[in-house]
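Entry 12.
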Amino acid sequence: MKKVAKFLQSRLFITALLMLIQVAIFVVLLGILAVNFSVYYILSMAAAVIVVVDIANDKMNPSFKLPWVILVMALPVIGAPLYILFAKSKQNRRISKRFKNYRSFMRNTLPYPEDAISEIEKEDPVLARQMEYVKKTAYAPVYKNTEAVFLNSGEEYFSNVLKEISKAEKFVFMEFFIIEPGKMLDPILDILRKKVADGVEVRIMYDDIGSINKLPKKYDRYLESLGFRVSVFNRMKPSLDAFLNYRDHRKIVVIDGNVGFTGGINLADEYINEVERFGHWKDTGIMLRGQAVTKLTETFLQLWHFSRGETKIDYGEYINSAPCDTDGYIQPFADGPSTDDLTAELCYMGLINSAVDHFYFTTPYLILDNEMTTALCHAAKSGVDVRIITPHIPDKKTVMAVTRSNYRTLLTSGVRIFEYTPGFIHAKEICMDGKAAVVGTANFDFRSLYLHFENCVLCYKSKCVSDVERDFIETQEKSTEITLEEIKKKGPLYGILQAILKVFSPLL
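Predicted 3D structure (C-alpha cells):
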C-alpha cells in the first residue's frame, strides 16, 4: 500500500493524470460536436478521408501508416485530430524550429581528421560505403589513433568509469536516460564532488521521463548544490505536447576529452546487479581512448545546448583527445528524430546486407518495421547465419509480447532466435563476419530508431570486434533457442493477439 500511495503522489502519476484528463475533455468535446452537429460529423468524415490520403502520400515508414489508417477510419472524429497532433508533429512550427536548430549544431563540427574511409575502401569497399553513409548523415568521421575496449557487463563498465573519473583534471560530462540514487550513482557522485572542489567542471544531463520515477523531487537542484552543472532533457509537462515523444536515450561519459564511454548501461543499481528486477541483468558498453572521443564530446555538447535552448557551442576548451596507438577504425555516431535520415536503422541494415558469413545481435526489444524484417529474412535465406538474442524475463510484458510477435516470420526464413534464460538482456551489440561490430544505445525497435536521440560506436578491424563476438557466443550458451514448433503450439488465439499487437506496435 505504501508503494501505491507513493506512486499516486508522484510527479509521473499526477502529470499523466492531468494529460489524460485533457485527452478525455478533448474526446468528449469532439463527441458532443459530432452527436449534436451533423455538419461537424460530416466534416470529420471528410477530414478523415483527407487524412488517410495524406497518410498514403506521407514519407513515413509504411509500418506507421497502417495503425494510423485503422485509427482514423474507425474513429474519424478523434482519429484525425490525434494524427495531426502527434504523427505530424515534425511539421509543427515550434518543433520544426527546434529540430532545425539541432541540425545546425550537428553540422557545426570540428574539422574532420584525415579521411580513413579511403583506406577501408581498399580492403572492404562494401563496408566503406556503409561508413560513408554514416559519415554524411550523422557528420561522423571515421577515426584511427583510438583504442576501443569492450566492456561485457555493467559491473565492468562501472569499475572502469569510477577509475577514469577519479583521474579527471579538467572536465567530466555525463549523459544518461536513467539515473537513480544507489550503489552505482552515489560513489560516482562522491568522486565528482571531490573533483569539483579541485576545480574540475562537471556537467550532468538526464532524461526527465526516463528518470522521473527514480529521483526525489527537485533532484536537479540537489545536484547543482553539489557544484555540478545540470540539464534535464525535455521536462515532462501536463500538456498535450507532441515533443514529449522525443527522449534522450543516449548514455555518454567523457573525461577530459581523452576517455569516453557509451553502451546500454544507465546509472541505476539493476545495471550492476545490485538489485534484482528481472533476473540477471546483462548489459555491455565500450570505452574509447584517443581521437574518436572527440565525437562523443561533440555529441554531448550538441544535445546539452539544444536542451537548454542555446544557439551557440564553443568546443575549443573541451576537445583535448590525445591520439593513442591505432586499434582499427572507430566511428562513433549519433542519431535522433531531428533529421529525415534513419542513420542507426540504415547503418544496421547496411551491415545486414553486407554480411557474407554471419550477423549476430542482441536487443531487449525486437519490434521491427517491414524493411528491417525483409533485410534479416533475405540475409538468412541467402545463407548468412543470422542470430538474435532477446530477454527471457521481460521488463515490460506487453512489449515482450510484441517482440515475440516478430518471431514466426524470422524463424520461417531461417533466422535463429535465443532468449537469455537467466533474465533480462539490455545490451545493444552487433557483430558482422568477425570484422565489424556496433556497441551503443539503439535498440531494434521503433522508439529507438525513429523517436529517441541515440548514439553508437561502429568498429572495424578493432580488437573489440572479436570481444563482442565472443561475448555473443558466451551469452548464447546461457540462452534458450526458440523454435517454430514452439510458436505453433501456442494456438490460434495467441497468434491473433500477436497479430493485433504487431499492427499497433509502431504506436507503443
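Annotation: Residues 95-124+139-331 form a domain with the Endonuclease; Chain A fold (CATH 3.30.870.10). The longest strand covers residues 452-460.
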